[in-house]
What does this fold into?
Amino acid sequence: MPRAPPARRVKRTMDLYLLRHGIATNAEETAPDGERPLTAKGIKRMRKAARGLRRLGVSFDAILTSPLARARQTADIVAKELGLQAHLSVVETLQPGSSIETLLSALSAYENREHVLLIGHEPLLSDTAAFLLTGKKTVALDLAFKKGSLCHIEIDSLPPREPGTLHCMLAPKQLRLLGARGGNS
It folds into this structure.
């Protein structure tokens, strides 16, 4: 009897999108830090950026946000614009002070998802992106995550076995311009 060919293993990857929250009130204006909301300008700009995401044709299996008010507001704007409110979850390990290890450990609960948006803060986002791209925790890879910046990295697994692939790094203005070109500005 002939042997069956070996089963082909389909390589499955995850597309991680890292988005820094929008412009928030200054720390001196509101206390405590976790309750700082987006400014009116921050809300307006994030709505345009969210339209830019929609125009790119990006859809997410999960939208994960820091529990801090400015990140939750950013996540709400993006989820509403993309019609993905049901995919929105708060993840404690996206808040400031968390480590790359604890974040990646928490993300393992989403390893069956293909397109995941993380909304959080600096320096965790740039440190995580640098780690995903190099496999090293301490590396001089200067990724400028301005408020409203988006980074798209493809990884092979959680935690990654190989360095990830950087697909794009969009400045906030680039996302907003895409959103403005799509109308409804």
